[in-house]
Amino acid sequence: MQPSHIFAAALLLASSAVSAEQTVGDVYVVPQLGYTWLDNDRSADDNFTYGIAIGKHFSDAISLELGISRGRYELPLDANLDLTALSIDALHIFARDSAVSPFVSIGVGALDTNPDFAEGHVHPIGQAGLGLMIQAAEKENGALKFSFRPEIKARWALPRDNDPQDKFLDYVAMLGFQFAFGEPRREPTPVAAEPAPAPAPPPAPPPAPKDSDGDGVTDDRDQCPGTPRGVAVDANGCPRKGSITLQGVTFEFNSANLTPDSRPILDEVAADLTKHPRLKVELQGHTDSVGADAYNLQLSDKRADFVRRYLIEQGVSPSQLVSKGYGETQPVSDNKTEEGRAQNRRVDMAVLENPGEVDVEIEPAAN
């Protein structure tokens, strides 16, 4: 195999190459197969060789790579000569962004010379070469590129111990298959179209109906005006009978301590209860389903008891109040959503005894 044959094949490949430019920053690996013409003083036959190189494109002009190659060559008397070369090479690339990029290389390294019949030894080497990077294909986003890489090198095995006879000049032709890995290309950001002129603002809506007692039902639909704040009402604005949820009474996370916003609500509840000292109610604590059942039961009991003690501090008679925790057993909403879990973390107030002073109808609490 002659060097001219290598470059004829390279030119044939170049004629069918597609644009897939080498990119600065890419790391690449190059499996190689080739042929070595040995110095006549080695007394060995020329033969095929193989190798691999690993490198990186550091700039538009410079790449650095580490390479290793190996070959076995026949000596007289049925003996063989093994040559293993390890080198680091700098490549100067011309027209890197073209489909075919010529390059020259220069490198240094070591050559392990190991004949069958004698002890091996290592030569320092210098080498220089020229070649082509022929861009063949790339992944759509540019993260992987494939190139053919034919090249020819002259390799000087320098003398050991200053022996002028202990030097050799070999020629190596290689065809490499280069795989380069890099960052995917970023798609260009589309230019935003000019926004259409803003339409004229609509006329101002009429004022919203008032909710004088703050129960969530506007005055035009409220059949029970003056409902105390914090008491749950039905669609007509009237207090729900039996079990009443104290809307807005919330607790610190994973705690029985009231949040600051809850205290004004309980202050109004306390004021209403002190007006009817013979009315007895049960404060019922509930939780969502997050956590162990036993822990939730204990937490709900603590929360209900905390509300009871707070109302007593505000002047409600202890005989009017009992507290009990129900844990997660009586949800009023779906525990699969955050909104549903928030509704299940509540305190209800159920009437236990009605001496007749207060008109209260007991209805079963929601399960």
Question: What can you tell me about this protein's structure?
Answer:
The chain is α+β, with helices and mostly antiparallel strands and 367 residues long. The chain folds into two domains: 179 residues, Porin; 111 residues, 60s Ribosomal Protein L30, Chain: A (2-Layer Sandwich). It is 15% helix and 37% strand. It contains four helices and twelve strands. An eight-stranded antiparallel beta barrel has the order 1-2-3-4-5-6-7-8. A four-stranded mixed beta sheet has the order 9-12-10-11. It is elongated and about 120 Å long. The C terminus is likely disordered.
Sum up the structure in keywords.
single chain, 367 residues, Porin, 60s Ribosomal Protein L30, Chain: A, 8-stranded antiparallel β-barrel, 4-stranded mixed beta sheet, 4 helices, 37% strand, disordered C terminus
Largest sheet descriptor: 8 strands, antiparallel, barrel
Number-wise, the strands total 12
- What spatial form do the alpha-carbon principal axes imply? elongated
**Poorly predicted parts:** 6-19, 356-367
Strand content: 35-45%
N- and C-termini, Cα separation: 91 Å
Q: For this entry, what is the oligomeric state of its chains? A: single chain
Query: CATH topology of the largest domain, anyone?
Result: Porin
Secondary structural class? alpha+beta
Q: Which CATH class of the largest domain applies here?
A: Mainly Beta
Number of helices: 4
Tally of separate domains: 2
Rounded to the nearest angstrom, the radius of gyration is 44 Å
Strand order of the largest sheet: 1-2-3-4-5-6-7-8
CATH architecture of the largest domain: Beta Barrel
Mean pLDDT: 83
